[in-house]
Amino acid sequence: MGTPDFAIPSLKKLVENGFNVVAVITAPDRPRGRGQKLIPSPVKTYALENNLPVLQPTNLKSEELIDNLDKYNANLHVVVAFRMLPESIWSKPEYGTFNLHASLLPQYRGAAPINWALINGEHETGVTTFFIKHEIDTGSIIHQCTANISEDDDAGTLHDKLMVIGSELVLKTVKSIEAQDYQLKIQNDYPGLKRAPKIFKEMCEIDWTKSGDQIHNFVRGLSPYPGAWTEINGKTYKIYKVRQVSDQETLGKQGTFHTDSKKYLNFQAGESLVQIIEIQPPGKRRMHIEEFLRGNKL
Q1: pLDDT digits over 8-31, tens only?
Q2: Which CATH fold would you assign to the domain 5-179?
Q3: C or N: which end of the chain has fewer Cβ atoms within 10 Å?
């Protein structure tokens, strides 16, 4: 069960290692683009290319889906980047249902663990497989694998890193369940646990009162999606990459910007200057700041 690109390597690992994937469950096709043409999910595309049966339920509690699951009679459900499942689904297989989560649980439970680990300036994260139960992301841990976060990582590069590591962990988990050779670890809450709630557009505005380091982490944690943004002369610009320029030089009021119209665009942050490296004007594509300044005056 999965929908986006993040789920494909895990499914591919199972197929290429000879496991009997009896069916793939993914989201319904979505209308996209100017013509609103129905586009299949990445997981559906891979499944059809590999002759795997595909189910696309709109209602996970429907009798039709339950009947289909009875027909396929899978003894294990594997979930990677899918929707929240009702108990009637996750409790069905003989060996249960496990999920791959892109954090070291119990840290960063929620919909956006990759983004929040970067926003909070973490130097390490990882992936976890766990058996699903009622409360989201709280089930018993089967396996975990850590991953370093580099200074140059953004949400896109970290996503790709964890996608690969996660696929290996899914394969390891399925083999462990097949052999009945694993030790479960109960998730215990403790002070200092950080959450990873879903991110909405209004949460992505850059707060120039923050330090340069905090703004750097905020921008890379939202790049390339959903994208941090700020207003310049009354228009909304997405910001994909920044760097801290100085700890001493100031322009005055926080949020004030300065540019020579050719090479740089600097904003005054809480303690330092922040230089914009990659920007996307309204209605246009993402570009390097020098390219932007050649065609735009601020």
Answers
A1: 999 999 999 999 999 999 999 999
A2: Rossmann fold (3.40.50)
A3: C
Query: Domain 201-295: which topology?
Result: Methionyl-tRNA Fmet Formyltransferase; Chain A, domain 2 (3.10.25)
Pick the closest to residue 288 from 245, 240, 255, 222 (CA basis): 240
Q: How far apart are CA 76 and CA 82, in angstroms?
A: 16
Gap between the terminal Cα atoms of the chain? 48
- pTM value > 0.85: yes
Where do the domains of the chain lie?
Answer: 5-179, 201-295
Supply φ then ψ for residue 211, to 5 degrees. Answer: -70, 160
- 68 C-beta neighbours (distance < 10 Å), count: 15
Rounded Cα–Cα distance for residues 38 and 188 (Å): 43
Q: 3-class DSSP state for residue 279?
A: strand
